[in-house]
Write a structure and sequence with these properties.
about 85% helix, about 100 residues
């Protein structure tokens, strides 16, 4: 309980020193995470019958599914992390650039 309250206090302190755009981004990121929790709970109830093969060909297919999923994750996770890390600063700089153009006109 103490650890949770100290984390919330640190977050509140961090949020209080942020600009409005940064605060909104942080709140939206947390809301997206919270919105994905029911999806994760739904998927965790699935039975993995595909990963419990009973023949030689089924074992090969299971290995193919595992390898292709692993390769897909090796590509997609870094791409998504890069997208999440780069898009807010680009959006902020684009907004500042558009504001400077409207001030000059």
């Amino acid at each position: 309980m103490g650890k949770l309250s100290s984390v919330s206090l640190q977050t509140a302190h961090l949020v209080s020193g942020m600009e409005d755009d940064d605060r909104q981004d942080l709140i939206l990121n947390r809301l997206h995470f919270i919105a994905l929790l029911p999806l994760a709970a739904t998927l965790s109830a699935c039975e993995a019958v595909v990963l419990n093969p009973s023949g030689d060909i089924a074992v090969q297919l299971r290995d193919l599914v595992v390898i292709s999923t692993t390769l897909m994750l090796l590509v997609m996770v870094p791409v998504m992390a890069f997208l999440i890390a780069v898009s807010p600063p680009v959006r902020r700089s684009r907004n500042r650039h558009e504001g400077a153009q409207s001030d000059a006109a």
